[in-house]
Write a structure and sequence with these properties.
Blueprint (H helix, E strand, L loop, with lengths): L5 H4 L2 H70 L4 H8 L2 H6 L2 E6 L5 E3 L16 H9 L3 E2 L3 E2 L6 E11 L2 E11 L1 H9 L6 E7 L4 E3 L11 H4 L9 E5 L2 E9 L5 E8 H4 L1 H32 L1 H15 L14 H157 L4 H134 L4
Antiparallel strand pairs: 1-2, 1-6, 3-5, 4-5, 5-6, 7-8, 7-11, 9-10, 10-11
Helix pairs in contact: 2-9, 11-12
Length: about 625
């Protein structure tokens, strides 16, 4: 099917509006894109500058606090160096100003290994030797103030660093002092900086250990736990952390192997860009929508005369045309010429349609009269054909029914013969069954005789075993007496005693054997009695079966006599049905010939009627089409 392309399916005024709106949309999009990238560049530059200023300010604060701690540690060390012994150093180390600035201060002596601390209750253990501690060895080797790497305090679990300062007396190394500085307050200060709600600041050491983080669970752990694989860089990095876009930048803390970092949410930092993009998009679409409305109004006003012509032509095309209507020719020259040509065309068409309508009415009347006569002839022939069909169907049905009855009679005769044969076979089988059951009865009687004899033999064996058991008991008593006499005889009767024991042992085994045999015989007798009982019951059932078989044979003989009588009656019925079937076939052949002739005549009449009906319908449709035009 034909599918109109865009230029044909869309109205001209809609094309003008669409193209104008598209041009305006492209212009606004280009302007918005240029503005977007310009503002984006300016905001990114401003954001990088602000981040650098924030990091620099935090770094300066950290440096100032650590410098204050190192200066206080150096001053305190000079005071301790002027004392004579450890006890004199304690008042200096335990001053409130120092204990409030440091978690703990300790002084270890090189010569003795003894130490003193600002907290008298501090007890590191009896084996603790300050000379083996990292802060001591590092300060001794460096011969100047050192700061250890951050670590978690074993008691408070705070992140701390130790300031180690060597103590020289008369230019000789006398020991070292450690000053534990808590970084918790420093972390609170870092976390307190306002990053405009876009992120947070943190601090890590050179080896990647976390010194300060808003989430204290990361303190003391590797920075990869929250930074991942992000490397330390002084440049602003655009990275992805846990599926979110982030801005990360680091700044080295002056004088320390520490790095201050900030992590900011990119969407928050550049929210102004997103807002600008959203506002520009909304403004663009609103402007295009307003332009479409204004252009549509102006173009509709300019093309109004063309709409009038289009409406008139559409009325004619739809079939409900008023050919008396004339268009107004007082418009612009282009539209006026089109209206004059349209008026001339409708005037010519009006005259032509009027003549065709007059001729159509006359043809329609003649066609209706001819169609009526053809329809009456068709109905008469159809009634005759229906009567013949009823007669033909009745004779056909009768012939079919008689044929089926004849066939059923033959099938019944065959079935009766088969039944007679089955009855003969059944009679033979019953006779054979009777003989087999009688033979089974004889075998059961013989088996009962054998089992009875077996029961008598078992009783005789049991009597013999009783005699053997009595002999064994007597032998056992004699062997016991012989053993007693041999014991009385002493050494001379020892051999006789051994023989007596063997005889007694054999007698006991004989008794045990006879006991087992008696038990088996008892089981055998019990089984024989059960077998005799079952066989007697079987003999009774066999007798009943023989009696039923005789009754069955007599019934089969009666059934064969009845079957022979039915066969004779069925043969007579089949002969009568064959004679009737010949008569019905003759009637059926005659009605079939008449029906074929009637069907041929009816088919011709029906064809004539259909042709006339089609002619009338076409003429009627033609009149209806012409009536749609007002002339």
């Amino acid at each position: 099917m034909y599918q109109p392309h865009w230029s044909a399916a869309v109205k001209f005024k809609h094309k003008v509006v669409s193209v104008s709106a598209l041009v305006l949309l492209l212009a606004l999009l280009v302007l918005s894109i240029i503005q977007y990238f310009s503002v984006q560049s300016a905001i990114k530059e401003q954001a990088e500058q602000s981040i650098n200023e924030i990091i620099q300010g935090i770094s300066n604060t950290v440096t100032a606090q650590m410098n204050g701690a190192t200066e206080l540690a150096a001053l305190t060390t000079n005071l301790v160096a002027s004392t004579d012994n450890l006890d004199a150093a304690f008042p200096i180390l335990s001053q409130p100003q120092l204990t409030s600035s440091f978690l703990l201060i300790g002084y270890g002596e090189e010569r003795t290994g003894k130490y003193v601390a600002s907290d008298p209750n501090w007890d590191p253990g009896a084996d603790w030797d300050p000379r083996k501690r990292p802060w001591y060895t590092d300060a001794k080797n460096a011969k100047e103030l050192i700061i250890t790497a951050p670590y978690a305090d074993a008691v408070s679990n705070e992140i701390v660093v130790s300031i180690g300062v060597p103590v020289f007396k008369q230019n000789n190394f006398n020991g070292a002092i450690f000053y534990d500085v808590s970084l918790a307050k420093l972390g609170e200060m870092i976390n307190s900086f306002n990053l405009l709600g876009a992120g947070y600041a943190f601090m890590v050491s050179k080896d990647g250990s976390t010194i300060s983080h808003p989430d204290i669970k990361f303190n003391g752990k590797s920075s990869s736990a929250f930074l991942g694989d992000i490397g330390i860089s002084n440049k602003l990095q655009y990275v992805e952390v846990k599926g979110e876009d982030k801005l990360v930048q680091f700044k080295a803390v002056d004088g320390l192997d520490w790095y201050l970092g900030v992590m900011l949410d990119e969407s928050t930092v550049f929210s102004a860009i997103s807002k600008l993009q959203r506002d520009a998009t909304i403004f663009t679409f609103i402007s295009v929508a307003l332009a479409i409305v204004i252009l549509s109004f102006v173009i509709n006003l300019l093309l109004k005369p063309l709409d009038e012509i289009n409406t008139a032509m559409a009325a004619i095309a739809d079939g409900n045309a008023d050919l008396t209507v004339r268009l107004n020719t007082e418009h612009e020259p282009e539209f006026a010429a089109l209206a004059k040509n349209f008026n001339a065309f409708t005037a010519s068409l009006q005259s032509l349609i009027a003549n065709i309508q007059s001729l159509g009415h006359e043809v329609h009347n003649d066609a209706q009269q001819t169609s009526h006569v053809a329809n009456q002839a068709k109905l008469s022939i159809q009634e005759q054909l229906n009567s013949i069909k009823v007669l033909d169907e009745a004779t056909t049905h009768m012939s079919t029914t008689e044929h089926q009855v004849t066939q059923s009679a033959h099938e019944a005769a065959e079935a009766i013969k088969t039944t007679d044969q089955v009855a003969v076979q059944g009679e033979k089988i019953v006779a054979e069954t009777t003989e087999t059951i009688q033979a089974l009865s004889d075998q059961i009687s013989s088996a009962m005789t054998v089992v009875t004899e077996l029961e008598s033999s078992s009783t005789a064996i049991e009597q013999i075993l009783s005699v053997i058991n009595g002999i064994a008991e007597q032998t056992n008593l004699l062997a016991l007496n012989a053993a007693i006499e041999a014991a009385r005889a002493g050494e001379s009767g020892r051999g006789f005693a051994v023989v007596a024991d063997e005889v007694r042992s054999l007698a006991q085994r004989t008794q045990e054997a006879t006991t087992e045999i008696r038990g088996m015989i008892s089981q055998l007798q019990s089984g024989s009695e059960s077998a005799v009982t079952v066989m007697k019951q079987s003999q009774h059932y066999v007798d009943k079966t023989v009696e039923k078989a005789d009754q069955t044979r007599n019934a089969l003989e009666d059934m064969r006599s009845a079957i022979r009588h039915i066969v004779e009656l069925n043969s007579r019925i089949a002969d009568m049905l064959n004679e009737q079937n010949d008569i019905v076939n003759n009637v059926n052949n005659s009605s079939s010939s008449i029906r074929e002739i009637s069907e041929s005549v009816y088919s011709e009449a029906k064809s004539v009627d259909a042709t006339m009906q089609s002619q009338v319908e076409k003429i009627t449709s033609q009149e209806q089409l012409l009536e749609q035009f007002k002339v």
